[in-house]
């Protein structure tokens, strides 16, 4: 989204607050953009950055054609710094490097912006170093922290930021847009359940690896039902060889979460919410095999397994423990 008019269709309240600040020249020294994946946090940060630097903006709208706008879009503006996790976390050294960059005079203006992606993944040392940075704000510096989980960020950091809560996107609207783009009903429903980003959803729907991941989820459920004693063997020989890294394994767990939600939707009579609609018969079989209470326990266990992955617990151990819990 390259304009505030476009952003307002997705995040009307936040867009109005920020454009008012731009037009009144009252941009805060620090913002915390919080919202679930796909709600537009990074697009919002880049749009605000362009509005700060663009010399041709009108009523807060950047022109999107000048040198500054182009370099911000391509990540090449010398006075705009983007920090993202190095591996699983943002480390103290990354914040120290950022602070060092800010001791230098801006190359093209005195104004500087830094954007921290997944700010909740800062280590304790990185958080404390950033806090010192925020405690001495400069009128010519704007910080933008992006997070899906603001509660994992130090309260002392949150208190120094203007918090912008992004509203969740409507999955039905996303589903309709994806169908317009040519996705089938089930594909559109599944992609809308996984991501709020239209382009990511379209790309994922064409991914052969992801298509095989969906099949493995159904196969795992069938093994758990028909041959539970072989489920650990299935995990080690087929599941872990396909889901080779943490990000892939998280996607596999996300698919499992959707499957068990579908079981619960069937139990409570909300069949219109079922995502794996082409596998309805298998879901019905699942309800005959597992009680609603067991399905709920499995759902909680899968979500706990996902949290363990975020905490760097060994992936194979996470899946083996989860499988044993789902067997019971």
UniProtKB/TrEMBL annotation:
Per the UniProt record, one Pfam family is: DNA_pol3_delta2
The top EC class, named as a word, is transferase
- Is the keyword Transferase in the record? yes
List the signal peptide residues.
none
* Entry keyword set: Nucleotidyltransferase, Transferase
The enzyme's E.C. designation: 2.7.7.7
Which residue stretches, if any, does this entry annotate as coiled coil? none
Q: Which GO terms describe its molecular function?
A: DNA-directed DNA polymerase activity
Q: List, alphabetically, the PANTHER family matched.
A: DNA POLYMERASE III SUBUNIT DELTA, REPLICATION FACTOR C / DNA POLYMERASE III GAMMA-TAU SUBUNIT
Quote the protein name from its UniProt record: DNA polymerase III subunit delta
Q: Which organism is it from?
A: Aquibacillus rhizosphaerae
Q: Where is the organism placed in the taxonomic lineage, from the top?
A: Bacteria, Bacillati, Bacillota, Bacilli, Bacillales
